[in-house]
Amino acid sequence: MENAKCCYPGSSLAEFDPLPLSTSFSRTLELQSATQKYKGIELEEYVRKQVSRFVIQLNVLACYLGEVCTYSSCPQMTATKDVLYLCAAHEVAKECCAIDYISHCLDGATSLLTSEDVMSHSSLGKNQEVNLQPFRVIMRRLYRLFAHAYFHHIDTFKRFEQETELFDHFCTFATSFNLISSADMLVPIDFASVKGNSVDSGNGGGGQG
């Protein structure tokens, strides 16, 4: 696992996709440039590609958590002691042990990102209204993986973040594109590093599921 940062798909920007995504949003003007450059359907496609990247990278965090997160240690998917997440992978949302929730969440995100409901809109033409709501749902659920890791497996969280800086990138991206509400972001973070104006393209996040 020590070399995970260099081994998983997307760890090299050149090999993943042609759209710009800095390895450190908070230290460059690239994300600010993207919020200004991409409009309409191009913005929707840009966000989709970057959310897809986060799903790939979070599979690595899942591997890290697999070393310490078990049914016995984490029979529920929780963040703080007052926050319990129900798994939406079932016909009726219900409790799952944390490691199963994580697996279901990543599988569900992959399914949504490749479904016609998300993909077909981008083929309708540049005059169509941008809809980032499916990505808000995905990002809100993906954030919960970080939250669980932070509050229950802090050593694993710190080790992963030191190697990848993924949580920093994820939060900066989510904030810049209004993909997660502040109420859903439970892990302490310094948002002073987030540069540029947010992109207002629809309703904010929030809610359960």
CATH architecture: Up-down Bundle
What oligomeric arrangement do these chains adopt? single chain
The largest β sheet comes out as: none
Beginning-to-end CA distance, first to last residue: 31 Å
Structure description:
This is Mob1/phocein family protein. Pfam families: Mob1_phocein (PF03637). It comes from Galdieria yellowstonensis. By secondary structure, the protein is mainly alpha-helical. It has a single domain, classed as Up-down Bundle (Butyryl-CoA Dehydrogenase, subunit A, domain 3). The chain has nine helices and no strands. It has helices at residues 4-7, 13-16, 30-37, 40-65, 98-113, 116-119, 133-152, 154-164, 166-176. The longest helix has 26 residues, at 40-65. The two termini are 31 Å apart. The model is unreliable at 1-28 and 191-208 (pLDDT under 50).
Short summary of the structure?
The protein has helices at 4-7, 13-16, 30-37, 40-65, 98-113, 116-119, 133-152, 154-164, 166-176.
What's the structural blueprint in terms of helices and strands?
Layout lengths: L3 H4 L5 H4 L13 H8 L2 H26 L32 H16 L2 H4 L13 H20 L1 H11 L1 H11 L33
Helix pairs in contact: 4-5, 4-7, 5-7, 7-8, 7-9
